[in-house]
Design goal:
The complex is a heterodimer of chains A (381) and B (129). With 381 residues, chain A is α/β, with parallel strands linked by helices. Chain A contains 13 helices and 11 strands. The chains are: A alpha/beta (381), B mainly beta (129).
Chain lengths: 381, 129
């Protein structure tokens, strides 16, 4: 059958910040209901479920919780890149007629429940336990730090360059009433914050909070019924490289090279067409590498690009427009929030932080240890 | 020995740790394509041959990247300490610690061994002078 155009027809966030009166599943369910409401749809309409980080067989557990029995299911664990990859997977399923209404959902209470572990422990026979854990590399910040250090060595990227990214995110957060951190931030403030793993400072790293959300995708006939303006999914791509940092072929290049190329080619656009950029800003170096690898600037030029204020409000590439994981919220996996923010920007409902005339958005998810990349291109229609 | 009484590590990595007890650094070498690989695999990843053997390497390498860690990660090491990736001259890249404070990326290093109570010595690296 002919391929169908695919749209994001509804987005919603779960309760955010410090959540004491919900469970992960109730938070996800609330977000799913709200996102379906935007789309003019009901739980009974959902026939595709895409879930990660909700426990074993995540889509099965959430399906039971919602009373949904999908005919297309995906519980892929691609780390933080899962949600953009789910857009890719659901897009193909809907386009091929294998799914009518896809729901992507997630929630976490990493802040109020237990925080993050800093070391990957687990099976003592695993390669991680044998060859990496004993050396005490912080997980994941130490892995990002090794990438930042190598980038500094090869290209002269400075800690001040990285700090610019945190400063830009905060400027956007100051325009977002929902953001966690809204007081002004300077490069000096970032550099004065304690080192976590050199060269990364505490303020180079994202927040640890509760949160979650849901995104609903469908095809044109259903998009017409959506209460809010639907946003077209033009293209998507994904790729992954290493799991253990020692096995990475290059610390200064990420799978964004492939996922971005695939997504942009499918979308039929170039980086010059992108009006708003939502990268997974787990750390400042994550953003810098994505900028280079997606082609917004040449490899090695990321420091110069951000130091010019490109990412800031009024800059040439508005980025992290909610304030990002650095200043707005980060529940453990940011991917759904990136999509939600991109959709709001393209619907022109982002209020004070609205990027004027935003038409085309690029969302880039990162998973593992800068080792999974998934990219989505969206357009206002 | 691990707690099941078997030799340390997993069935494929066991030769690495047996050598570590003797303070010898060994990795897999493929006789077919003459490449070294680490972590161990059941066949050569480069040419898919079975002609693998564990061989001694010189223990010399170059610092590829490094970070001074300030977080308490429950590893038993007291921060700050340096975690690094070292490229062995033979090719494989190891995650390790550097024991000399003055080392930088690009410096030449050689292996030394850190004893521990709960297993074989760990390969760490010091300045090659």
């Amino acid at each position: 059958m002919a391929s169908r155009d695919v749209y994001i027809v509804g987005v919603a966030e779960s309760p955010l910040g410090k959540v004491y009166d919900q469970t992960e599943f109730s938070m996800a369910a609330l977000a799913v209901r709200d996102a379906l409401d935007e789309a003019g749809l009901r739980l009974a309409d959902v026939d595709g479920l895409f879930v990660n980080y909700m426990g074993e067989e995540g889509s099965v557990q959430l399906g039971e919780y919602l009373g949904v029995q999908p005919r297309y299911a995906d519980s892929s664990d691609l780390g933080g890149a899962s949600f953009e990859a789910f857009v890719h997977h659901s897009m193909l399923a809907i386009a091929a007629g294998r799914c009518e209404v896809a729901v992507l959902a997630y929630a976490s209470r990493q802040r109020t429940r237990r925080g993050r572990t800093r070391v990957m422990a687990g099976d003592p026979q695993s390669l991680m336990s044998q060859f990496e854990v004993p050396f005490g590399l912080a997980f994941p910040l130490g892995h990002f730090a090794l990438q930042a250090a190598r980038h500094a060595y090869e290209f002269g990227t400075t800690e001040a360059d990285l700090a610019e990214i945190a400063v830009a995110a905060r400027m956007w957060a100051m325009k977002n009433p929902e953001a966690w951190h809204r007081d002004p931030l300077t490069v000096e403030d970032v550099l004065a914050s304690a080192y976590v793993s050199e060269p990364l400072h505490k303020l180079d790293c994202c927040l640890v909070l509760d949160g979650g959300g849901a995104v609903v995708l469908s095809h044109a006939a259903r998009a017409r019924d959506a209460a809010k303006r639907a946003v077209r999914v033009l293209g998507a791509g994904e790729a992954h490289g290493h799991w253990h940092i020692s096995q990475s072929r290059s610390l200064v290049e990420t799978p964004a090279v492939t996922s971005g190329r695939e997504a942009l080619a499918m979308a039929g656009v170039t980086v010059e067409d992108i009006d708003v950029f939502e990268p997974y800003d787990a750390t400042t170096i994550s953003v810098l590498l994505a900028l280079e690898d997606l082609g917004f600037c040449p490899k090695g030029e990321g420091g110069r690009f951000v130091a010019a204020g490109s990412l800031r409000p009024g800059g040439s590439l508005p980025s992290m427009t909610s304030g990002g994981g650095l200043s707005y919220n980060h529940p453990g996996a940011l991917g759904l929030h990136l999509l939600t923010e991109a959709v709001r920007q393209l619907r022109h409902e982002a209020g004070e932080r609205q990027v004027p005339d935003a038409e085309v958005g690029l969302v880039h998810g990162v998973g593992g240890l800068l080792s999974v990349g998934s990219t989505v291109v969206l357009r206002r229609e | 020995m691990n707690d099941t009484g078997a030799l340390w590590g997993d069935p494929l990595s066991e030769p690495f740790w047996r050598a570590a007890w003797e303070r010898r650094l060994k990795v897999q070498f493929c006789a077919q394509c003459e490449r070294y690989q680490h972590y161990p695999r059941p066949f050569c990843l480069s040419c898919q041959s079975d002609a693998l053997a564990w061989v001694d390497v010189t223990g010399r390498g170059t610092v590829y990247s490094m970070t001074r860690n300030w977080l308490d990660v429950g590893s038993g090491l007291v921060p700050p300490y340096v975690v690094a990736l070292v490229d062995l001259d033979e090719g494989p890249r190891l995650l390790t610690n550097l024991i000399d404070d003055t080392l930088c990326i690009g410096d030449r290093v050689e292996v030394t061994w850190r004893d521990r109570v709960d297993g074989p010595p760990l390969p760490v690296f010091k300045s090659l002078d």
